[in-house]
Specification:
It is a single chain. Helix content is about 40%, strand content about 20%. With about 280 residues, the chain is α/β, with parallel strands linked by helices. Helix 7 packs across helix 8 and helix 9 packs antiparallel against helix 10. It is globular and about 55 Å long. The model has no long low-confidence stretch (mean pLDDT about 95). The structure holds adenosine monophosphate (AMP). The site of adenosine monophosphate has 17 residues, from helix 2 and strand 5.
Length: about 280
């Protein structure tokens, strides 16, 4: 595996590969890699000739400095995992390399209402920061395929919007959520949980599953959301930011399901100071 820290070196390598007619897949990450990330790498290897993984803890998408400071960094382990799993290139830039003119937004992304819903309402400016870093990475790598996880469902929808807004020539591929055997969605932030908290955190996937079992046309969505919130608090979470049953494309909240609309259920909740998110697609 090649490891590049400088944009110019990466660009040269990628353009030499493209000249040979090879296609490129990009998997952006913030490191502390787990099986969820590795599934994205494997999907990229399936879909493209060359797989580039980036590891960059992007300061501009954190609205909470504590979360940024506590973000786990395990680069040596990450390199081994990527090598073992056939990744071709690791891009490991510094903040200075990514943002030579400073971290202020160079442009505002007009994302519409989706920017301020759910994650957006709890993490102001988060999606502007996400667009800023993904746009920059797309510009540097010029991939044919961008692979992202359903785990961050709203992020995928926001990036889809950015791609169409800027007419970028890249195909966005969503990869399903990878879970531990007991159902807990894998996340780099799980490393901050004790075994007891990990056990309690199972309630997130269980509560989503219960919504999936119970949702029917004309059933009150509010009651399903409320039941889910109560079960999460009973399991030991200190706070639920949201349980939302929403339109699968716009993430607009739904009151009553017409039985036709594509729906997704999403949750964000806090356990011992760690914020976890999960979601499930309710209907295709
Ligand atoms: P992160 O390093 O948390 O920014 O995640 C990098 C990419 O991996 C994002 O596209 C995430 O959606 C994806 N990802 C994170 N956790 C999982 C998971 N459990 N299953 C699938 N994809 C994931």
């Amino acid at each position: 595996m090649y490891l590049f820290k400088k944009i110019e070196d990466l660009r040269q390598y990628v353009s030499s590969q493209k000249q040979e007619g090879k296609t490129v897949g990009l998997v952006p990450t913030m490191g502390a890699l787990h099986d969820g990330h590795i599934t994205l790498i494997k999907a990229s290897i399936q879909s493209a000739d060359i797989t580039v993984c980036s590891i960059f803890v992007n300061p501009t998408q954190f609205n909470d400095i504590n979360d940024f400071n506590k973000y786990p960094i395990t680069v040596d382990k990450d390199v081994v995992l990527l090598e073992e799993n056939g990744c071709d290139v690791l891009f490991l830039p510094s903040v200075q390399e990514m943002y030579p003119h400073g971290t202020a937004l160079q442009q505002k992304y007009e994302l519409g209402p989706i920017e301020h819903r759910l994650e957006g309402s709890y993490r102001p400016r988060h999606f502007q920061g996400v667009c800023q870093v993904v746009h920059r990475l797309l510009d540097i790598v010029q991939p044919d395929i961008l692979l992202m996880g359903q785990k961050d469902y709203q992020q995928i929808k926001v990036i889809q919007k950015m791609i169409s807004l800027l007419h970028l020539h890249v195909r966005l591929q969503m990869v399903g959520i990878v879970r531990a055997a007991n159902g807990l969605a894998l996340s780099s932030r799980n490393a901050r949980l004790s075994d007891r908290e990990k056990e309690a955190a199972l309630i997130l996937s269980r509560a989503l599953q219960k919504i999936k079992e119970k949702i029917r046309p004309n059933v009150s969505v509010a009651i399903l959301q409320e039941e889910a919130e109560k079960s999460i608090i009973r399991a030991g979470f200190e706070k639920v930011d949201y349980v939302s049953i929403a339109d699968g494309d716009t993430l607009e909240p739904v009151d009553i399901w017409d039985g036709k609309k594509r729906l997704v259920a999403l949750v964000a909740a806090w356990i011992d100071g760690v914020r976890l998110i999960d979601n499930t697609i309710l209907s295709e």
